[in-house]
Automatic annotation (TrEMBL):
This is Glycogen synthase. It comes from Caldovatus sediminis. Signal peptide: none annotated. Its EC number is 2.4.1.21. The keyword Membrane does not apply. Residues 1-29 are annotated as: Disordered.
Length: 523
């Protein structure tokens, strides 16, 4: 690549010269740590569609104390519009139909370095990271996310930023999952970790697209990127990444079974048998503290329930609900099949019959949305549904509710149940994935074993019983609010995975050197 003078890209997308940035170091980064590039399709600082966006904002920050970590994200409109300067530090060539792009570098207010993939034709649009305002997937998602994976691989090869080359890639879900494949096809021995936040989203495309994405013919087979005749981004990552993680230990076991493995359980079992699959539980960030959260209508701590009551009053008023001495149940969620929203809508009848209320904040697929709105029409004042995405309302709803419904059919980790517990709202949840790992049945919430309406309503009856005993309710709230839930443990576990992969990479370089091969990095 030709030598490149850094330029700056302002919010209007125009590049202009800026002072050199090559020597700049992230002052908060670990002094001698390894260099990790965290690659993601959403980050709450700019744009989020769900839990991945929150993890992408929190985990790299938590890892900074241990590793020299940077983030790579597509240069969406929200990233370009953030106001601050974006220095251009590199340029990458086209491959197949994947267009050229520039590599931007910006710094968040707290000093985290974020690389933005600048390719306006692919990313500068009105909509979500994955689709338009109506929720329809972008037709060129294969190119958009192949571009992201290819850029991540270019970083690992030292081709993206002349001042910084990661020695590990941390990838997240299918939009980033082609990166390990591109690394393998270019013979680059840089290790990679792929975290599965949700196996159900796989990035499937027609096999005819392979050539346009620079995927070699030999890779289109079962030991490669092929999945039932289609091209699967996620399968590529599962096959080529050095290590796989999921976001809870229970989900790491569940995905080895056909009920949860989405057809990939065979490959996942192989990876698990190789010791290359582990479950690392997500944490929640420090902003989730009811004593200090500025979004709340009233702040509160353990045993100081007046602030909690202020949020309950706000939620009831804001949603046009009646005053009530009964329990307030809540749902704050993407409204999709995974989350068991249909079961929750059916269970709303039982809640109302027993004198409770249900408030819903969420958006998602049209059928679950319509099912909930239908119940709300039948029970005005007792059931309220707001379709939309609103951080402040979400936080007030966690804070004001007594119970959170999470009848998820599967749940890789789940953040909502952790937020709810921190805010003294007890989750009523299916015993699956991260819900099983973060809720103590009868102590910090209520778990039910079978994902059915009868099991859910039985758990709701247990919640009502706890609500009737003030002493029991307060003891459970106290337990839920004080469980440690930060990111430290997860950061330490990810650091452990990185250390093991580096040690293995060093061993294999040594073996290759002794066998007479020149290590690629030395060429
Ligand atoms: N309408 C709305 N308004 C405001 N906020 C809203 C909202 N709807 C949802 N949210 C917020 O979005 C987040 C959703 O996070 P989850 O982890 O529960 O689910 P998600 O399925 O998106 O994530 C996937 O990835 C994460 C991260 O690894 C896993 O925990 C999870 O199991 C997996 O399915 C929560 O913080 C919630 O408060």
């Amino acid at each position: 690549m030709p030598a490149l003078e850094p330029t700056e890209r302002a919010g209007n997308g125009r590049a202009h010269p800026s002072p050199p940035v090559r020597a700049a170091r992230d002052p908060a980064a670990a002094p001698n740590g390894h260099r990790a590039l965290f690659v993601t399709s959403e980050m709450a600082d700019f744009v989020k569609a769900g839990g991945l966006g929150e993890v992408s904002a929190a985990l790299p920050r938590s890892l900074r104390r241990r590793l020299d970590v940077r983030v790579l994200i597509p240069g969406y409109r929200e990233v370009l519009a953030r106001g601050g300067p974006i220095a251009v530090v590199g340029r990458l060539p086209a491959l197949g139909e994947i267009p050229t792009c520039e590599i931007g570098r910006l710094e968040t207010a707290d000093g985290l370095i974020v690389h933005a993939l600048l390719c306006p034709a692919l990313y500068d649009r009105e909509g979500s990271p994955y689709g338009d305002a109506h929720g329809v997937d972008w037709r060129d998602n294969d190119l958009r996310f192949a571009r992201l994976g290819l850029a991540a691989a270019a970083f690992a090869r030292g081709l993206a930023d002349p001042g910084w080359q990661p020695d590990i890639l941390h990838l997240n879900d299918w939009p980033t999952a082609l990166a390990p494949a591109y690394l393998a096809w270019s013979g680059t021995p840089v290790p990679s970790v792929l975290t599965i936040h949700n196996l159900a989203y796989q990035g499937l495309f027609a096999r005819e697209r392979a050539g346009s994405l620079g995927i070699p013919d030999h890779a289109f087979r079962i030991d490669g990127v092929e999945f039932h005749g289609k091209l699967s981004f996620l399968k590529a990552g599962l096959f080529y990444a050095s290590h796989l993680t999921t976001v809870s230990p229970t989900y790491a076991e569940e995905i080895l079974r056909p009920e949860f493995g989405c057809g990939l359980e065979g490959l996942l079992r192989t990876r698990a048998a190789e010791g290359r699959l582990s479950g690392i539980l997500n944490g929640i960030d420090e902003s989730w503290d009811p004593r200090t959260d500025r979004h709340l209508a009233g702040r509160f701590g353990v045993d100081d329930w007046r602030g909690k009551q202020a949020n309950a009053e706000h939620v009831r008023r804001a949603h046009g609900m009646s005053d009530s001495a009964g329990p307030l149940f809540a749902i704050v969620s993407r409204l999709v099949h995974q989350k068991g929203v249909d079961l929750a809508a059916a269970a709303a009848e039982a809640i109302v019959e027993q004198g409770g209320q249900l408030v819903v904040t969420g958006r998602g697929e049209s059928r679950p949305e319509a099912a909930l709105q239908d119940v709300a029409h039948r029970h005005p004042g007792a059931v309220a549904v707001r379709i939309g995405f609103d951080e402040t309302e979400a936080r007030r709803t966690y804070a004001g509710s007594d119970f959170l419904l999470m009848p998820s059919r599967f749940e890789p980790c789940g953040l909502s149940q952790m937020y709810a517990q921190r805010f003294g709202s007890l989750p009523v949840a299916h015993r699956t994935g991260g819900l099983a790992d973060t809720i103590e049945d009868g102590i910090t919430g209520f778990l039910f074993g079978e994902c059915s309406l009868s099991a859910l309503t039985a758990a709701i009856a247990r919640a009502f019983a706890a609500f009737r005993s003030r002493e029991r309710l307060d003891a459970m709230r106290r337990a839920a609010m004080t469980r440690p839930r930060g990111w430290e443990e997860a950061a330490s576990a990810y650091e452990g995975v990185c250390a093991r992969l580096h040690a293995a990479a060093r061993r294999s370089t040594l073996v290759r050197t002794l066998a007479g091969h020149t290590p690629r990095e030395a060429r």
